[in-house]
Design a protein that fits this description.
Layout lengths: L20 H6 L9 H10 L2 H18 L1 H4 L21 H8 L18 H37 L1 H15 L3 H11 L1 H8 L7 H17 L3 H14 L3 H8 L4 H12 L1 H24 L11 H10 L6 H28 L6
Length: 347
């Protein structure tokens, strides 16, 4: 065999031969390249507990937002001679109508002390609690992400002052503030409710408005701290330096680069904040600081059911079990999202 002179500049023709099938297969990727969101959703779908909780949440939302619109009874409708009916029980008047050939929809969860169908009240109460949880979490997300990103990005004395404000807010008792706001906002909200376009304030009452105000004033501090820690880690990255070199302003860097790269953390934290908000609203409604009667919420239904626990336990069990199911499902689904968005969990 002729050996090529190592000092020669002549090219070896064998180096330019087409690759064999075996060589091509050895260079193939073990897994096709996919994006961050698609990869996270793939890992989430492989988590059976998270997916079961997701579908439970979907079913509860359908029952809360869609079914009451087609349900034969209304949440404020009082049915004569139908107080404290057991589940699937009819009153004597209703039974007589059924014997006469009329078809009546059963009271799936019975009725309360005023003869109102309890199933539709539980569904509407779930709607109120879910709306409070979703709206409050959105408020917390907006305020906390903006505040935390500004604090972490600018650092120095700006970060020092802003974080000391957060520490002070942590010391404010939230329940006491809600009680004070309920009394302070009562007259302004009553006057505002007389203005056309604000009649809906008569339905929700001052208690629910004060809950939203307190969430906006107090509950965003946890989100702010999480976002601040993420921004402190990311602000020295190469793409941030490149954006500065290209003349991007601080607002654009925070909005387009830092918060965008924190989106996984924001989604997970917001999902885990929803059950906390629902529990807070249920607890305050249980104390009588929630929505205005006759509008129900799960907390107020549980409070009313507690009075007849011995004689009518289903009035307490239904809202209490639903509160537990909603909070557990959101928590487990949030844990699944956290694992899906964690790069260390890739498989």
């Amino acid at each position: 065999m002729n050996m090529k002179n190592p000092l020669s500049f002549q090219l070896n023709v064998d180096d330019f031969l087409p690759a064999s099938k075996e060589e091509k297969e050895s260079l193939s990727q073990m897994r096709p390249s996919i994006g961050f969101w698609k990869d996270a959703m793939r890992r989430l779908r492989k988590n059976p507990v998270a997916m079961v909780c997701f579908w439970i949440i979907v079913v509860i939302m359908i029952l809360a937002f869609i079914v009451p619109e087609f349900y034969p009874y209304k949440y404020e409708e009082q049915i004569k001679y139908s107080t404290y009916l057991a589940p699937f029980e009819f009153s004597e008047v209703e039974q007589a109508r059924i014997d006469a050939g009329e078809k009546l929809f059963p009271h799936i969860l019975g009725t309360d002390n005023l003869g109102r169908d309890y199933a539709v009240r539980v569904m509407v109460g779930s709607r109120v609690s879910l709306l409070v949880g979703l709206i409050a979490s959105a408020i917390i997300l907006v305020i906390g992400s903006v505040y935390g990103s500004i604090s972490g990005f600018f650092g120095g004395w700006v970060d020092l002052v802003m974080m000391r404000i957060v520490d002070i807010i942590y010391t404010i008792p939230d329940v006491l503030l809600i009680v004070l706001l309920s009394f302070a906002l009562e007259d302004p909200i009553r006057n505002l409710a007389n203005v056309p376009g604000f009649k809906w304030l008569n339905t929700v009452g001052t208690g629910l408005i004060s809950i939203f105000v307190v969430f906006a004033l107090l509950y965003w501090v946890g989100m702010a701290r999480i976002v601040r820690s993420q921004v402190l880690t990311l602000k020295n990255s190469e793409y941030v330096t490149a954006a500065r070199a290209l003349g991007a302003g601080s607002g654009r860097i925070i909005r387009k680069h830092l918060l965008t790269n924190c989106i996984g953390t924001l989604v997970v934290t917001t999902t885990l904040q929803i059950p906390s908000s629902i529990f807070t609203e249920s607890f305050l409604s249980f104390l009588g600081l929630g929505v205005k009667v006759p509008m129900p919420s799960l907390g107020s239904l549980a409070s009313d059911g507690l009075n007849g626990l011995e004689s009518h336990p289903y009035l307490l069990l239904a809202p209490a079990l639903l509160i537990s199911l909603i909070i557990l499902s959101f928590n487990l689904f949030g844990d699944g999202l956290r694992d899906a968005f964690d790069p260390k969990m890739k498989n």
